[in-house]
Amino acid sequence: MHTAELDWITPDAERVVACHARVSTTNPDRPEFEKLLKYCILHGHWSVYEQVSASFEIITTRSISAQIIRHRSFAFQETSQRYCDPTSVLAEAEERCWDFDLRRQDEKNRQNSTPDLDPRLVQAFKERIEVLYSDLKNTYQDMLEAGVAKECARNILPMCSPTRLHMSGTIRSWIHYVGLRGGVETQLEHRDIALAIGRKLEHEVPIIVAAVKEYAKKEFNLKGWLNV
After folding, report:
1. C-alpha distances out from residue 76 to 64, 70, 93, 135, 166, Å
2. Which residue in 62, 154, 164, 181 is the catalytic one?
């Protein structure tokens, strides 16, 4: 349900970063750049990583998308419940969207939850949630068939309803997003998305990610990369 796939990334991204980092030299496009990229990260020269970008398609729920779009250095396009029926457009994700994890609230840390609820309690709530979701979905469909506008009918859709986002930003923004949201302080479902993005960036820009992981060992705000 909570997935992230690469839309696109600046071609030859690491070479482009290096070329722009050498803008004040006579030969900015020389082929060796691994040491330069690492140096820029280890010394906090982040601006050069704004010269390349990437975009990801994210499938998640409305509850998680509300967290994701708080990252204002990114640009977003999200499925509009005014113009489409998400239960149809995102039918595969919607099929069991009601079957989400139920975890215990950590009493000492409100940012944390633990997977140790009584299985019988979980099952009892799951059965009730399935019935409730089915009723809401049927009511939503009845409203549309009766001519109610989607922008009105969507008010009864629950937070577990599926949504699709396209999230684009510079590599600098992605470095800090994964570093923050890949940490244990982030809700598990959101963390899974961030780590999936981190793994895909590791494939696309391996030199940059290797340097970020080294830097993250001493930089608290990037420690999420240590989980990639």
Report:
1. 14, 10, 20, 31, 6
2. 181
